[in-house]
Amino acid sequence: MTVPVLSVRDLRVEFVTRRGILKAIDGISFDIGKGEVLGVVGESGAGKSVTGSAVIGLIDPPGRIAGGEVLLSGMRIDNLPPDEMRRVRGKRIGMIFQDPLTSLNPLYRVSEQLIETIRTHTNLSASAARKRAIDLLAEVGIPAPERRIDSYPHEFSGGMRQRVVIALALCAEPELIIADEPTTALDVSVQAQIISLLKRLGREHGTAIMLVTHDMGVIAETADRVAVMYAGRIAEIGPVRDVVQNPLHPYAKGLMGAIPSLESETDRLVQIPGSMPRLSAIPPGCPFNPRCPYVFDRCRVERPEPIQHSEHRVACHLYDQSSARSEAVA
Amino acid sequence: MTENSYVEVKDLRRVFDVSKPWLNRVLEGGEKQYLKAVDGVSFSIAKGETFALVGESGSGKSTVARMVVGLLPPTNGEVVIDGVSMSSRAALAERQRLRRRIQMIFQDPYASLNPRWQVDRIVAEPIRAFRLIEREKEIGERVGELLSLVGLHPADGKKYPHEFSGGQRQRVAIARALASNAEFIVCDEPTSALDVSVQAQILNLMRDLQDQLGLTYLLISHNLAVVRHMASRIGVMYLGRIVEISNGRELFAQPKHPYTRMLLDAVPDVGMTGRQRIPVSGEIPNPISPPSGCTFNPRCPFANERCRAEIPPLLGGVACHAIHEGRLAIDAAA
């Protein structure tokens, strides 16, 4: 088997606060292969964005990586010194954030920002870098790039700005792109354009993409595999079609049922009682147990480890063969 | 319009002056600039019905909502609720009685509740403002009742808004809206700031309350799936105009206007039925200088000379020359 582009092993991220240590990420593992799009989905506070930041080494104090490892094409990157990590970031890992306006410097022309980034990571001359920048803008679908390149960020619309940010992320042809809620600030019609752009780039360049979003629809359209996160852990990970149509974990089931659909008409949406626990008060055992309709004694004491179940990996005692409850939900 | 309509919006129009200051205009030259946020919007809502307005940012849907509740005076047109015109001066007393029955729920439950007030004071405010109940003890009982109605505990009244999660805050906002025995509630993106599982809780609650109390809703949303789940009739807005208006089922089964079709195609599909989408092109134009004729014409694959020159009227529930002329078949939608 080939080495995955990104491999995360038992990653743990903690935040040290006055009230004690908060475990934002508590032992998650996943791989992303070449050209693959992994969707990371979950509600606010599930730890999706922290996962992205941890991979790219942007966890600032009081946060810290407390354990586990991050491998980029087989090379360990979570323990690199800051200046070496800086070279990996941008060159080998690109990042796209939610709000395109805050990821661009409003005082510099788009051309300056693109050319600076290209020249930092490659040894192109200024004129060659400018040509490359124009090519990149054309590739992400900005009309008349040779004219638009000298505009300032505020002269672009939201969708066009997000395209510029994507072009910036692509400057050094990274192996991995981390896209954190890339379409959340955009309207649906523009969102669809950005999604198909990301998909095309992944396909054409073989770039691995980690797509962090709370929008299940975006994941369903874009990702090959999806990881459902809850309270800093992966509840379920598997091929996107399987997870969306046949979720195993009770939380994933609830999440899918809660989404109103355009296709089907339901009278009531599935309702998960309660809300995500605070990081300071994660219940013992399975973190989902107070909200789970299938909860039994073991869930309250023992933390479920991920179990391979057909093509999914699911962290739930219900699917453990040694547990008598396995047929209850099957 | 029908006899039994509870809310009637007639030819509503709102223009904002977005000109530069007078001195700049004199020194730098330049004309006054106007932005037509809403132009010629008419619809009616029957009692106990949910009517939804959908559209992208800048389509004017929130401006309509603000005019309907009276937060913003319309430039032209009028809003008639239960037979009383909201803009006529004569019916002042009646209008004040009517106000009590209209309430609004806003998008951001963090911004719409006073952070320095305890929840029971927030919920009791409409009761006190309209002097619905005089005795303090009875107000307290009513607040407890309202909190239980929206799925909170009466003891939660002693807490401050920051002690609640987003979904619970939106419940408090709903309790406040119901406090004055409102019959008509305008909901401006009530669940956009919430996570999906919490959104499901709030949408279910809104529907339960409608069944229980016979509420009438005007729902403003950009989320087509939410709208489909909630509304019996839907108006699709684009650049300040309603381009299509029809009952919910029909709109989704048989969208007519090219913009509606594009919008439906653009929604990411959770069901993953393998639907082929028509690629979407372009973005909403600048509303200060909208395109001439049909405002959708630069993005429309069916536009012709007439579309670029003449604004299409809303006929048969759709404002599109191509449909009216029979150039575009109604069944053509995927």
Automatic annotation (TrEMBL), chain A:
One of its GO terms (molecular function) is ATP binding. Signal peptide: none annotated. SMART domains: AAA. Keywords: ATP-binding, Cell membrane, Membrane, Nucleotide-binding, Transport. It is found in: Cell inner membrane. InterPro entries: AAA+_ATPase, ABC_Ni/Peptide_Import, ABC_transporter-like_ATP-bd, ABC_transporter-like_CS, Oligopep_ABC_C, P-loop_NTPase. Pfam families: ABC_tran, oligo_HPY. Residues 8-256 form the ABC transporter domain. Gene3D superfamilies: P-loop containing nucleotide triphosphate hydrolases (3.40.50.300). PROSITE patterns: ABC_TRANSPORTER_1 (PS00211), ABC_TRANSPORTER_2 (PS50893). It is a peripheral membrane protein. Coiled coil: none annotated. The keyword Membrane applies. Belongs to the ABC transporter superfamily. This is ABC transporter ATP-binding protein. It comes from Microvirga splendida.
Automatic annotation (TrEMBL), chain B:
Coiled coil: none annotated. It is found in: Cell inner membrane. Its main location: membrane. Pfam families: ABC_tran, oligo_HPY. It is a peripheral membrane protein. Keywords: ATP-binding, Nucleotide-binding, Transport. Residues 7-264 form the ABC transporter domain. One of its GO terms (molecular function) is ATP binding. Belongs to the ABC transporter superfamily. This is ATP-binding cassette domain-containing protein. It comes from Microvirga splendida.
